[in-house]
Design goal:
The complex is a heterodimer of chains A (115) and B (111).
Chain A: E1 3-7, E2 10-14, E3 19-26, E4 31-38, E5 44-50, E6 56-58, E7 64-68, E8 73-78, E9 87-95, E10 104-105, E11 109-114
Parallel strand pairs in A: 2-11
Antiparallel strand pairs in A: 1-3, 3-8, 4-5, 4-9, 6-7, 7-8, 9-10, 9-11
Chain B: E1 5-7, E2 10-13, E3 19-24, E4 31-38, E5 42-50, E6 53-57, E7 64-68, E8 74-78, E9 87-94, E10 100-102, E11 106-110
Parallel strand pairs in B: 2-11
Antiparallel strand pairs in B: 1-3, 3-8, 4-5, 4-9, 5-6, 7-8, 9-10, 9-11
The chains are: A mainly beta (115), B mainly beta (111).
Chain lengths: 115, 111
């Protein structure tokens, strides 16, 4: 069974500071990994994904994440936080080649940006 | 391309009633998945349909059911509603790749 752990249900950063949201996963097969963002009263928007190849992936809005197999991690970073980054972020995993697209999500991290 | 659309966006029902939610995937996408989001349990997978067949199912009671039509549109139904069914129900569609694209959700309140 797969699982995702997001460390910190709430993270606060100052505007312009580094954003680091942590995600660790458990999977018995090579995973596909995703980060989604959710703004209030909206659905989930894909930020970035890792499937195969380059372990450092870049996404929208200046976010990037690095897949580290040895650490079973896929942490999300952004060099400089903007007020518009305030939202809830979800890390998710699915089995590669499973033939089904069931996502297992972490509990989410709510990011606050302090002006 | 238009995104995933879900109707209705908001719904209020009373215990014991049933409800049907609708999802229209991105044009050309044949896979539709449904998720339930609650503050306590987070995001949980309900089921996935591909080409009108249920391909995968999460750990939910039989009161939760779904179907997919030949045009890939999907509906989910919840019978005998309980207070705990109050949630945001999200639909996602997938094309030829592995990425799921989510709709805005239907917020269901059970009184």
């Amino acid at each position: 069974a797969q699982s995702v752990t997001q460390l910190g249900s709430h993270v606060s950063v100052s505007e312009g500071a580094l954003v680091l949201l942590r995600c660790n996963y458990s999977s018995s097969v090579p995973p596909y990994l995703f980060w989604y963002v959710q703004y209030p009263n909206q659905g989930l928007q894909l930020l970035l994904k890792y499937t195969t190849g380059a372990t450092l992936v870049k996404g929208i809005n200046g976010f990037e994440a690095e897949f580290k197999k040895s650490e079973t991690s896929f942490h999300l970073t952004k060099p400089s936080a903007h007020m518009s980054d305030a939202a809830e972020y979800f890390c998710a995993v699915t089995d590669s080649g499973a033939g089904s697209y069931q996502l297992t999500f972490g509990k989410g991290t709510k990011l606050s940006v302090i002006p | 391309k238009a995104g995933v659309t879900q109707t209705p966006r908001y719904l209020i029902k009373t215990r014991g009633q049933q409800v049907t939610l609708s999802c229209s995937p991105i044009s050309g996408h044949r896979s539709v998945s449904w998720y339930q989001q609650t503050p306590g349990q987070g995001l949980q997978f309900l089921f996935e349909y591909f080409s009108e067949t249920q391909r995968n199912k999460g750990n939910f009671p039989g009161r939760f059911s779904g179907r997919q039509f030949s045009n890939s549109r999907s509906e989910m139904n919840v019978s005998t509603l309980e207070l705990g069914d109050s949630a945001l129900y999200l639909c996602a569609s997938t094309g030829s790749g592995e990425t799921q694209y989510f709709g805005p959700g239907t917020r269901l309140l059970v009184l």
